[in-house]
């Protein structure tokens, strides 16, 4: 009797299949529940004769295992199909999550703007090494032996003495001008952008490295008037038409005469503010006529050729343009700072 029942239920379990959780739950209650079939057959088993018990005991245990295994394997199937149907229900009309793309560094933006303006005047771009020898950084540029700029306080020396003199991190990109002039003959019309190093304590107003764009123009009959006109044009393009310029006499070993150029403060338009220290003017670059000694040092005939040079700090131009008061922000890589500066061109 019991054996017959078990055979029937075994066939039923073997035939059962589903991928629906509610049907599987019905199966579990029917066979494995506290009032289910397994419980019933075990209760009936208690009443059978001792001889029958010996054979039926094993059969019963196998039957119980069969029901449990069936339940386990179908539980996996129903779970997988539930997950799949959840995935099928994804709402594809929801807005996407989006991802952020990086932005140009403000110094890179300003550098590019400067280069683009001078490109229109026919200036190309030249680059050189950041580790320089004494000749390219100082001597060829007419720095006297005892000039304070060679002092340990301003320059990061890498090696003292040696075949080519002291080796140092370049303190300006004028070294690239020397390399350019040594490598060819005029006309030269180029910009030298790059990173330069000076041994200064880091603060809001000074850093041990910064970025420069220098420029050089050498040809026959180049005059101070050409220098003024070129820089005047540059400033109108950079800060807008009507920006005023003024030149103050200055000194650089490699230019004669030398000047510093101020522009009318782009922030207060000359009315006076913190940026221009209430003077209405801000200094943005140094410039001058290339000293004939420098031309000769580089193998250029100073009787035939003349030229002008200028140099500016990109950080300074960016400070004015974006009103950034602390130089350290440029090198901290804080994304909240950097992503404020977006450009149309990537
Ligand atoms: N080399 C100078 C500096 O680093 C800038 C400069 C360049 C001045 C060319 C005059 C002419 O301060």
Notes on the protein architecture:
This protein is α+β, with helices and mostly antiparallel strands and 346 residues long. It folds into two domains: 2-88; 106-344, Bira Bifunctional Protein, Domain 2 (BirA Bifunctional Protein, domain 2), CATH 3.30.930.10. It has helices at 2-15, 21-32, 37-45, 50-88, 106-119, 134-137, 174-183, 224-239, 292-297, 314-322, 335-338, and strands at residues 124-125, 131-133, 157-159, 167-169, 188-197, 209-219, 245-252, 255-264, 281-290, 306-313. A seven-stranded mixed β-sheet has the order 1-5-6-10-9-8-7, with helices on both faces. A three-stranded antiparallel β-sheet has the order 2-4-3. Helix 1 (2-15) packs parallel to helix 4, helix 2 packs antiparallel against helix 4 (50-88) and helix 5 (106-119) packs across helix 10 (314-322). The mean pLDDT is 91. The site of phenylalanine has 11 residues, from strand 9 and strand 10.
**How many structural domains?**
2
For the sheet with most strands, the description reads:
7 strands, mixed
**Secondary-structure class:** alpha+beta
Distance between the termini: 84 Å
The ligands bound in this entry are: phenylalanine
Fraction in helix: 25-40%
- Classified by CATH, the class of the largest domain is Alpha Beta
| Percentage of β-strand residues | 15-25%
Q: What is the residue-mean pLDDT, rounded to a whole number?
A: 91
CATH superfamily of the largest domain: Bira Bifunctional Protein, Domain 2
Query: Helix and strand succession?
Result: HHHHHEEHEEHEEHEEEHEHH
Keywords: Aminoacyl-tRNA synthetase, ATP-binding, Cytoplasm, Ligase, Magnesium, Metal-binding, Nucleotide-binding, Protein biosynthesis
Protein name: Phenylalanine--tRNA ligase alpha subunit
Binding site for Mg(2+): 256
Subcellular location: Cytoplasm
């Amino acid at each position: 009797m019991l054996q017959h029942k078990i055979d029937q239920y075994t066939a039923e379990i073997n035939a059962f299949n589903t991928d629906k959780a509610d049907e599987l739950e019905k199966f579990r209650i029917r066979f494995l529940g506290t009032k289910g079939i397994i419980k019933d057959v075990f209760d009936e088993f208690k009443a059978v004769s001792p001889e029958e018990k010996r054979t039926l005991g094993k059969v019963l245990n196998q039957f119980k295992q069969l029901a449990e295994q069936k339940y386990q394997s179908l539980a996996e199937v129903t779970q997988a199909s539930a997950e799949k149907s959840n995935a099928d229900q994804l709402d594809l009309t929801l807005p996407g999550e989006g991802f952020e793309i990086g932005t140009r560094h403000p110094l890179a933006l300003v550098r590019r703007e400067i280069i683009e303006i001078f490109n229109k005047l026919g200036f190309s771009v030249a680059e050189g090494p950041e580790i320089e020898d004494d000749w390219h950084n100082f001597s060829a540029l007419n720095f006297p032996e005892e000039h304070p700029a060679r002092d340990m306080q301003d320059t990061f020396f890498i090696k003292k003495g040696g075949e080519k003199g002291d080796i140092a991190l370049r303190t300006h990109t004028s070294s690239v001008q020397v390399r350019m002039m040594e490598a060819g003959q005029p006309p030269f019309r180029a910009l030298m952008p790059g990173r330069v190093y000076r041994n200064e304590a880091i603060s809001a107003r000074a850093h041990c490295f910064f970025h420069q764009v220098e420029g050089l123009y050498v040809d026959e009959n180049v005059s101070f008037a050409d220098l003024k006109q070129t820089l005047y044009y540059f400033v109108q393009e950079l800060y807008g038409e009507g920006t005023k310029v003024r030149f103050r006499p200055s000194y650089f070993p490699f230019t004669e005469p030398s000047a510093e150029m101020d522009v009318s403060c782009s922030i207060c338009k000359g009315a006076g503010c913190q940026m221009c220290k209430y003077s209405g003017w801000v200094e943005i670059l140094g410039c001058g006529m290339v000293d004939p000694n420098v031309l000769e040092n580089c193998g250029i005939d100073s009787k035939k050729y003349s030229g002008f040079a200028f140099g500016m700090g990109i950080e300074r131009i960016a400070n004015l343009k974006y009103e950034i008061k602390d130089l350290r922000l440029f090198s901290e890589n804080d994304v909240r700072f950097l992503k404020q500066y977006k450009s149309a061109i990537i």
